[in-house]
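Troubleshooting: if your tokenizer reports a length mismatch, compare against these two reference records.
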Amino acid sequence: MSTETTTPAKPARTSRQRLGQFLSDNGALVGLVVVVVAMFIATPDFLTTTNLLNVGVQAAVVAILAFGMTYVIVAAGIDLSVGSVAALSAVSAGWIVGQGMPGALGLVAGPLVGLLAGLLSGLATAYGKLPSFIATLAMLSVARGLTLVISGGRPQSMPDEISWLGSRVLGVPVPILVTLVMFAITAFVLNRTVFGRSLYAVGGNEEAARLSGLAVKKLTAAVFALSGLYAGIAGMVLAGRLSSAQPQAAVGYELDAIAAVVIGGASLSGGQGRATGTLIGALVLAVIRNGLNLLNVSSFWQQVVIGLVIALAVGIDVLRRKTS
């Protein structure tokens, strides 16, 4: 006589549960659609081709910074220095060109300065055992101070090789093209490489990742170096748009970058995050700012709105972790 063991069937999910799961997986996209529709209703000029391209340009620098931040947050870290590092990279490039060096050298040197700054933060975090919050807060101050020292507090003019980043190719602004390239690279690294999968492991459980043989310290240093590199590229794009490197450029951009990543569905506790979500998060912030500009809302009130959006995004992340 044989006995068969049957596994009880899982109860079917209700419509409410399915809706909750859909919103959890696609909340950022739903939020973007809602914001776009709201802005279109408030001001029909919003959905013009010219304005949509402006939104893309406005989102570009924050999106690139946020892509670099995604690596860090997935690995359960935080990088508060990206805005200052972006400014330092741009000013360094301007200074190099001002010494009679070719513009192409400045274009390459800027991102390398960002890479070096990020690597120093990563080494301080991984091997100096400083919390990433403290290490990058220190780098924020150091990078901004060096920016003012190098520039003497004055804007640095940009050569054509860098100013070109603010131009258009076949009618499409170059900042948007650079953003799409950085998005593709980030998505590939996170989804298709051993390095990317290792970051999710480190962010999910650092001790388990270490016991499984992952070089956690090297991975930690690498993600901050990548974040610095992306900040350097963002600095070049910003300088190209302005045709100059401003010592006080990108102040507060690190908060927008963190907000974009969290709005996109990443968890500040690590182990979660997608390039697609980050791009959507950056677009949400850009759409809100652009729409408020079209509605002639004071920049002071815009800061209030963006702050509330950041608080809402973090609150949703907390709730998501409690219910998961």
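Reference record two:
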Amino acid sequence: MLTKLEVDGFKNLLNFEVELGPFTCIAGVNGTGKSNIFDVIQFLSLLADRSLIEAAQEVRGVHGERLGDPRDLFWNGYSRSDHKMSFAAEMIVPGEVEDDFGRPAKPSITFLRYELEIGYIPPAGIEKIGRLSLLAENLRHIKLGDAPEKLGFRHNAGQFRKAVLHGRRAGTAFISTAIDADGQPIISIHQDGGSRGQPKPAAASRAPATVVSTVTSSDDPTVLAARREMQSWRRLALEPSALRTADRYVDPRQMDPTGRHLAGTLFRIAYTDGDFERVYARVASRLADLSGIDVRELRVEQDDVRELFTVQLVESGGLALPARSLSEGTLRFLALCVLLEDPSVEGLLCMEEPENGIHPANLNAMVQLVQDLAVDPYEAPGVDNPFRQVIVNTHSPAVVQLADPQDLLFAEVDIRRAPDGTMARALSVRPLVDTWRDNRDTRTRAVSKADILPYLTTPPGAQLTLEIA
């Protein structure tokens, strides 16, 4: 679980800070940069797996290219000479993970703070766009005694906090950065044994990837747990074409961020549960929350001749409809219903505008569904309460009115001082007054209901009734 995110110098995020709970809804008008929050989370997740340049190229570019330009990640493109962006993520990591060889590993402590600083080196020789450079990387523990203050969102200390926070660490960081005599950063990994283990240093200047991404074995269990946590941060971009595609028997049975492998995933969930009818009935019951959807039964058809899985919806009249016949909004809702049933899906899920394609009469069902996807912080995480975190963004007044005020943040553009001393437009997110985030960050003013009237009132000129001549 990502509990706090700090960013400086990434796109329009300058001296940016946000605290996150199990479920967060970020609302704001188009153009404020809400999606940049998802971009930075995606970037950090990619950096746990890939090289600096590969991660940068996969993040959404500003010009819509298939591969992003790494220079576009910096707050003002590449107009300055001293490019630098820094990140800090406070997180609760899994209590047990597996390394790349299938061996179990337990971190020394599950509450961590990860810090990263990345620079830009202009092109030289054969290079034409330059490259990213690793300037600093640190991973430290957060004292469990500080958890009541650190975790500001409402939760049950005995059932939730004590279940996810455990372990101990004294003194040495797990990853640290020092500057050598030549002024170059040297990054060291410190073993979980603390002073008993010798650090493993490496020069950062030519490092192609972060140190976290290189840890693959159980020899460094806490660093590995941090890596696994960041790898679990996903950005859902459910695509109708992917959701409509049948699954081959040889395909993966884990739904990807586009929604591909929906049928195979639902079959695997039902098979693992051991009661196909019960699982299919739960998904069908949730899908029936959508008004206008006539659902008697939902199942996964197995075509042994073509070796295909397909999702079939059976209406009350007996008509069977394949997934490809459903509307885009219904397909997205169905995909989230399947995710809700999948206890193997943990980590952070980011969703852009979940209201897209949903009839206004069904917004309440959609908002309730995305809220239910997140872990219940009043119960211990487990099979019936997967340790999932959800962040959505929206510009819909209806979604804002349906969300719990404790979960709301409002995106605005502020004028802030940029790294070069100039004043720049930067994203800020503000909580509602008297909610748990209020007064926790003195730099950010909370908003009142009067400030968000556009989200609470009918726009001028709107027709509340239709008169037919």
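Descriptive notes for reference record two:
- The chain has twelve helices and 20 strands.
- The two ends are 56 Å apart (CA to CA).
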